[in-house]
Amino acid sequence: MLIDTTMRFSGSALASRLMTGAQPHHNYERRRPRSLFCAALSCACLATTPLAAIAQSAQLSVWQGEWQVEATTFTLRVITEGNRFFIEPVRPLGLEWTSTNGTIDGNTGTIQVEYQGVSAQVMVQLISDSSAIVRSLSCQPDYHVICTLVQNQQALFIKLKNAANQAELRLD
Prior knowledge:
Layout: H1 2-10, H2 13-20, H3 27-63, E1 65-69, E2 75-81, E3 84-91, E4 97-99, E5 102-105, E6 108-115, E7 118-128, E8 131-140, H4 145-150, E9 154-159
């Protein structure tokens, strides 16, 4: 009864031979389940690759725009190109700082910032399409008062919704 049910379910001569203990006649039948699995896996990978590329492209565009520290007027503009980003001051609150081009890896970005003799590597972590947490990964010289103040601290940036500020810009 079990063999009959399996045969109706699978419709395969291979299934009936396996259930009765008979060996397949051809190597093709022996490799068939593995080759079907490999073919299905290959199709799945090929089908998801363009979707992954589209998702990554959409994710990179999330970074672009103006970002403001919560409860302040300190505002930066983020400009992206591929997996790189550059920040420029919009409302810097009188702070004179410089930065290098940053790199984006998924929902995380890193950038080097210099301010009053301090050099810090800063990590930006997207929480959503409209918010990010920013914290210092390293700060040198470590004895500087700024490094002491930023140690174990983080800032919440909120993306501003102004459409005029979301135009695509290119790095020079």
